[in-house]
Amino acid sequence: MPSSSTLSNRSFNTIQLIYAGGTFGSYGRPLAPLDADIFLPALQELLTEHNQTNQLPEVSWLDNKLIKDSSQLTSNDFVHFYELLLDAYAQGQRQFVLITGTDTLSYLGAFLAEAFAGTDMCLVVTGSMRPLLDSDVLQTYTVDANSDAWNNLSESLRLAAAGESGVKISFGGESWPAQTVQKIHSHDFMAFTGHTRAGYPNNSYIKQLPDTRRQHWLDDQIAVKNDIQTRAEQANIHAIYCLPNIPDILSTQLEALLTQPPCGIILLGFGAGNVPHSKDLAEALQRAYEHGHMVVCASQCPFGGVSDSYAAGSWQYDYHVIAGGRLTIPAIYARLLWLLLRYDTPARRRQRWTYTVNQSGTAIRKNR
Fold first, then answer.
1. Of 58, 159, 173, 283, whose CB count within 10 A is highest?
2. Quick check: 166 and 113 in contact, CB under 8 A?
3. 284-319 confidence digits (pLDDT tens)
């Protein structure tokens, strides 16, 4: 672990670029992510050529062996990227761009925002809907003029160079706090949306963290690093989707999870979080709580979140269901996963969730 004096001499100019695969680095027929030892030299050459006419920030590469289509990522993989960034941050690096696939881009971004809350890290997560390289050109690697990849990368590098603390997602010429972002289109270049009215963890990032506080934060993370790795093997987040069925189906789905170790469960309700009521479902929710599970109600609607305005939704909160508020489904998943990894008991996880909600409320009141 570097000393405080080492950390005070950190470089703020070079962007650490992480390539994790996805559509951005795909090539060939059918499309598949290129290995880093093939893709990164080609990308470096293109960056060098581009910088002769249009200056971009200086870039170096973080060695990453995990190259996947993002639809294949797991909680263990999320921990891999957390540790990769943690090690680089401990060595004094602060500004990063992570290239990944779009399928789970919002999930990974929200998770890393939770994991690095309270720091001055600047991380921009991006990807593309079309590959950077033109698969119709076989003689050399050239940029596909019809792709969104180069613009997304350029904008992300400039955003990271500005150095504003926090985890952001940059896509289609826009950027948002990672916790607010969700994918809304499976093909269009404007595939993501988000908003800037974000509370915790976005409001926890600090413009410039004093060396002593940074060292304390790092010490705390290193102390639980092995525990996080171990818990990742069993950490599971489940989703139960409400449909116009009899409530017994929901209670049966929930009952099937009660024998598993304490996990996170996202209950996807109608509208503002309305959930079909039944005595069996209420009892199953109570037992889920007693088993240490965290059940969070979210809305199937892409915007607006949940509330307790309707009797059809408020009843569940009497049985220890947690309201997801305005958090997106990826953000709820990310928070549940981080709590399962970071804290060792159901009581501490619930306590921490309450803390994050209080922090979010404070930020919203300040912004009014």
1. 159
2. yes
3. 999 999 999 999 999 999 999 999 888 899 999 999
- Reduced to 3 states (helix: H, G, I; strand: E, B; else coil), residue 89 is helix
Q: Could you read off the pLDDT of 226-262 as tens digits, one per residue? A: 999 999 999 999 999 999 999 899 999 999 999 999 9
3-class DSSP state for residue 207? coil
- Residue 118 per-residue DSSP state: T
Residues in contact with 201: Cβ distance below 8 Å, sequence separation at least 6, in sequence order: 113, 114, 116, 117, 118, 167, 179, 356
169-178 burial, b at 16+ Cβ within 10 Å, e below that, comes to bbbbeebbbb
- Angle formed by the axes of helices 329-342 and 225-232, to 10°? 120
> Structure pTM?
0.93
Torsion of CA 192, 193, 199, 203, to 10 degrees: 60
| Sheet (strand 264-269) strand order | 237-241, 264-269, 294-299, 322-323
Note the helical H segments in 224-266: 225-232, 248-255
Q: Measured at the alpha carbon of residue 345, what is the angle toward residues 333 and 222, in degrees to the nearest 5?
A: 80
Distance of CA 365 to the CA centre of its chain: 25
DSSP 3-state assignment of 72?
A: helix
Nearest to 264 by CA among 334, 180, 354, 183: 334
Banded pLDDT at 141 (limits 50, 70, 90): confident
> What is the distance, to the nearest Å, from the Cα of residue 291 to the centroid of all Cα atoms in its chain?
27
- Output the six-digit token pair for 155: 């904008």
Tell me which long-range contacts 158-161 makes (C-beta under 8 A, separation of at least 24): 158/56, 158/57, 159/124, 160/15, 160/57, 160/95, 160/96, 160/97, 160/122, 160/123, 160/124, 161/13, 161/15, 161/57, 161/95
**357 contacts 284 by C-beta, under 8 angstroms:** no
Rounded mean pLDDT, 89-95 = 96
